[in-house]
Amino acid sequence: MRVVPPLTAVTAALLLVTATGATPAAADLDPAPDAAPLTRVSHGDPYARCTVGARSPDSVVHPGTEVEPYLSVDPNDPRRVVTVYQQDRWNDGAARGLVASWTTDGRTFHRSTLPFSLCAPGGADYERASDPWVSTGPDGTVYASGEGVDFTRSTRSALLTATSRDGGRTWHHLTTTHVDEQPFFNDKPSLTADPVRKGTAYQVWNRLDNDPPGPGSLDGPGYISLTRDGGRTWSPARPFVDTAAVPNTQTIGHVIVVDPRTGTLYDFFDRITYSDDLSTVTEAHYQMVTSTDAGRTWSAPTTVARDTSVPEVHPNDPTKQLRAASTLPSPAVDPRTGTLYTAYEGSDFSGGDFDAVQLVRSTDGGRTWGSPELISPQGVPAFSPSIAVDERGTVALTYYDLRFLEPGDTTTLPTAYQLALLPHGEPGRRTERRISRVFDWLQAPFAGGYFLGDYQGLAADGRGVRAVLTETRSDAPHNRTDVYTAPLSTR
Fold first, then answer.
1. Would you indicate the residue range of the signal peptide (predicted)?
2. CB neighbours (10 Å) of residue 406?
3. What is the pLDDT of residue 215?
4. DSSP-based three-state secondary structure for 451
5. What is the three-class DSSP state of 350?
6. How many Å apart are CA 442 and CA 475, to the nearest integer?
7. DSSP code string of 175-201
8. Cα(388)–Cα(335) distance, rounded to whole angstroms?
9. Stated pTM of the model
10. At residue 171, what are phi and psi to the nearest 5 degrees?
11. Non-local CB neighbours of 364 within 8 Å, separated by 6+ positions
12. Is 157 helix (H, G, I), strand (E, B) or coil?
C-alpha cells in the first residue's frame, strides 16, 4: 500500500480510488528479453465465480489479474519454490483472494488457494485479501501470510497466517494473529522464517490508529507476532517499534532479515511524520531495529537513509498515477560477512524530479550506514527494487524502469524488468541485463494508480537468485496481468 494521510481506517488505508477512464491498448513491444525465458506461474482464475466483496457500484473488480507477487525457495532444494500473489484485484482495495503456485522441479508450477478470504475454499471470514508473503524455514516448512479485510459488513482488518509441509500443495493451521476494527487498521504484513531456528517465524506489520489519545490524530507503531512451533500457534500481537513520542507518526514496510552466522534479527521499515492536518509529510526516514534474542527484545531505532521518494507518475503525463514500492524498503544480509543492504526508491540522483533505485550498506551490523548509491541508470525513472545476496556475496537487484519510453508518448508506458549484479556489493563492478519483455504498464489494473503490486520478489536459491514479477498483456483484455518467475545466474 502507498502511504497517504489516513482519513478513515479502511477507505484511506486501502486507497479508495476509482478509475477515471480507459487507456488505449498497446501491442506488447518486445517479446525477447536478454535472459532466459520466464516461466508463467499464474494459470486460470480460481475465484472467477466469487461474488463477495463489492462495496458499492463504484467498486470494480479486475478478473483474471494477478499482481503483487512474492516468493520463497526451499533452502535445502532450489527446485522447490512457492510463489504467492493477489488474484482479481479490486480498484478500491485488496483482491478477491490470494493464490500460491508451487513447484518441485523448478519448472512446472501448480496452483493452490491460500485460505485468507471468503472466495477461497475453506477460507477465512473476510471479504477480500491483500499483501501476500511467503517464507520457507530450514526444515522445509512454508509459512504464508496475508491481510483479510471487510468492506460491507464491518471495518475489520486482520493479519492471517497458514503453513504448508508439502511445499505449498496444501495449507493448514490457518491463524488470525491479530484483528481490529476502526479506528485501527493493520497494514503491510511481512513474514520471515528464521533460517537457523527450526519452527520459528516472525510476522511484522504497522498498526494504524486514526484516533489516538493525546496530541495528534495518527499513530502507527510496528507490531510483531511469532511462532516457535512451526506455525501451529502464534504469540499475541505486541508493539515492538514505538511511534507515540512524535505525534502524527507512522511506520510502514516492516521486513525482518536474519544473519545466519549469528541469528541476529534486523527489522527494516519507513518512519513517516505528517503535518498537524495530515496533508503533507514533514519527515521520512528508513530505519532499523535489532534483536539478538530471537525477537523477545528490540533495540532503539537506527536511521538507515532518508526517504526521498516522490509521487510515482507517468513521466510524460503526471496525471496518470503509478503505484509501485515507494516507502517500502527491500533489505538483505550477506550470508558470509553479515554486511547489510537496503534498496529503495529515492530521488536523490534526479534532483527530486523522479524516483530511481538507490542502495545503502552497513558493514558494522547497522550501527552506521554509507551514502546512497545509484543502481538504476542515470536519468531513467525506476521502481520496485527487490534485493538478494547469493552465497558468494554477489548482490542482486531487480526493478522496473522506463528507459524505452519515447518523448511525447502519453498513451502507453513501455516498461521492462531489469537485473543488476554487484559482486561483493561494489557498484563500480555493476552489470545489468533485462529479464522481461517490454510491456505497457498502463494495461495494469487501476487501484490507487496503475498497479503491478506494492512489491515484487527476489530470493537467493543456492545457485544464484530467483525472481518473480508482474507483466501486463495487451492482447488479453480479460487477463490483463500475469505473474512470471525465472532462476537467474549471478556469475
1. 1-27
2. 8
3. 86
4. strand
5. helix
6. 13
7. EEEEEE-TTEEEEEEEEEE-SSSTT-E
8. 10
9. 0.94
10. -125, 140
11. none
12. strand
